[in-house]
Protein backbone atom coordinates (compact mmCIF):
# COMPACT_ATOMS: atom_id res chain seq x y z
CA UNK A 1 0.00 0.00 0.00
CA UNK A 2 2.88 2.35 0.77
CA UNK A 3 4.37 1.78 -2.67
CA UNK A 4 1.05 2.68 -4.33
CA UNK A 5 0.87 5.96 -2.38
CA UNK A 6 4.49 6.72 -3.21
CA UNK A 7 3.98 6.12 -6.95
CA UNK A 8 0.70 8.03 -7.10
CA UNK A 9 2.15 11.08 -5.35
CA UNK A 10 5.27 10.88 -7.51
CA UNK A 11 3.21 10.84 -10.70
CA UNK A 12 1.12 13.75 -9.42
CA UNK A 13 4.23 15.83 -8.70
CA UNK A 14 5.85 14.92 -12.02
CA UNK A 15 2.75 15.97 -13.97
CA UNK A 16 2.72 19.39 -12.31
CA UNK A 17 6.45 19.88 -12.79
CA UNK A 18 6.11 19.04 -16.50
CA UNK A 19 3.22 21.51 -16.88
CA UNK A 20 5.21 24.27 -15.17
CA UNK A 21 8.24 23.54 -17.35
CA UNK A 22 6.09 23.70 -20.50
CA UNK A 23 4.73 27.10 -19.53
CA UNK A 24 8.20 28.35 -18.59
CA UNK A 25 9.54 27.17 -21.97
CA UNK A 26 6.79 29.00 -23.86
CA UNK A 27 7.25 32.21 -21.89
CA UNK A 28 11.03 32.34 -21.56
CA UNK A 29 12.34 30.60 -24.70
CA UNK A 30 9.63 31.11 -27.33
CA UNK A 31 8.59 34.54 -25.95
CA UNK A 32 4.89 33.83 -26.36
CA UNK A 33 2.17 33.91 -23.78
CA UNK A 34 0.35 30.66 -23.11
CA UNK A 35 -3.27 30.78 -24.19
CA UNK A 36 -5.90 30.77 -21.51
CA UNK A 37 -9.00 28.97 -22.62
CA UNK A 38 -12.52 29.94 -21.61
CA UNK A 39 -13.62 28.51 -18.31
CA UNK A 40 -17.10 28.59 -16.82
CA UNK A 41 -15.70 30.75 -14.02
CA UNK A 42 -15.14 33.54 -16.58
CA UNK A 43 -18.88 33.80 -17.09
CA UNK A 44 -19.60 33.76 -13.36
CA UNK A 45 -16.96 36.40 -12.60
CA UNK A 46 -18.10 38.66 -15.43
CA UNK A 47 -15.00 38.15 -17.54
CA UNK A 48 -16.96 37.17 -20.65
CA UNK A 49 -16.97 40.51 -22.50
CA UNK A 50 -19.73 39.53 -24.93
CA UNK A 51 -22.24 38.75 -22.21
CA UNK A 52 -21.38 41.84 -20.20
CA UNK A 53 -21.71 44.16 -23.20
CA UNK A 54 -25.03 42.60 -24.20
CA UNK A 55 -26.40 43.13 -20.69
CA UNK A 56 -25.29 46.78 -20.72
CA UNK A 57 -26.97 47.40 -24.09
CA UNK A 58 -30.18 45.79 -22.85
CA UNK A 59 -30.10 47.92 -19.69
CA UNK A 60 -29.58 51.09 -21.77
CA UNK A 61 -32.56 50.18 -23.98
CA UNK A 62 -34.76 49.68 -20.91
CA UNK A 63 -33.68 53.05 -19.50
CA UNK A 64 -34.48 54.79 -22.78
CA UNK A 65 -37.93 53.19 -22.89
CA UNK A 66 -38.69 54.19 -19.28
CA UNK A 67 -37.61 57.85 -19.55
CA UNK A 68 -40.98 59.23 -20.69
CA UNK A 69 -43.15 56.78 -18.79
CA UNK A 70 -44.23 58.15 -15.38
CA UNK A 71 -47.38 56.04 -14.99
CA UNK A 72 -45.97 53.76 -12.28
CA UNK A 73 -43.73 56.36 -10.65
CA UNK A 74 -45.70 56.48 -7.37
CA UNK A 75 -46.10 52.72 -7.01
TrEMBL record:
Membrane-traversing stretches: 6-28
Output the superkingdom of the source species: Bacteria
- Keywords, in A-Z order: Membrane, Transmembrane, Transmembrane helix
By its UniProt entry, which InterPro entries does this protein fall under? DUF3951
Region: Disordered, residue numbers: 52-75
* UniProt name for this protein: DUF3951 domain-containing protein
Amino acid sequence: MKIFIFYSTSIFVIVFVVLILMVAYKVLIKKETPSNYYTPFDHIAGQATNEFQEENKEYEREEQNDEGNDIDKNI
